[in-house]
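Researcher: Structure prediction, please.
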Amino acid sequence: MKSAGKYFPGFLLALLLLAAWPGAGHSGAEEVSEYGNPFTWVTVGQVAVKAEVVQTPEKLYLGLGQRRELPAGRGMLFVMPRREVQHFCMRGMEFPLDFLWLAPGKVVGVEKNVPADYAGALTSPGPVSFVLEVPGGFCDQYGIQAGDPARWQ
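Model: Predicted structure follows.
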């Protein structure tokens, strides 16, 4: 029978590495969606939305395309690489969306109830760095309009 002490240093090293692994053992680990995107809370007007945050070129391109739905109370916050006029489309969409063009502290503009099969481009009313997509009808339901306050963490 081999001595357990022979394997102890390797076991101890593995245990220490596991404990040091980012996110290991932390109850406050960042919450992520089923698509691997981190969540943040975005408040527009008086309404809080649990939004997936995307900012890599691949995630910005894909957006909500190829999904069957966006649950009520959820959205997607696009963090654009530059503050400029933004152009979006409905590529691969299966449900209507409202677009909220955001600047820090406020809603710059909205596009309401854009149908899933809309073939045109949606353009922000001015330079923005953030875009929030929410289920179609959200802005009408909550009375959201340009000039409303907006904040996120």
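Model: DSSP finds three helices and nine strands in the chain.
Researcher: Thanks, that helps.
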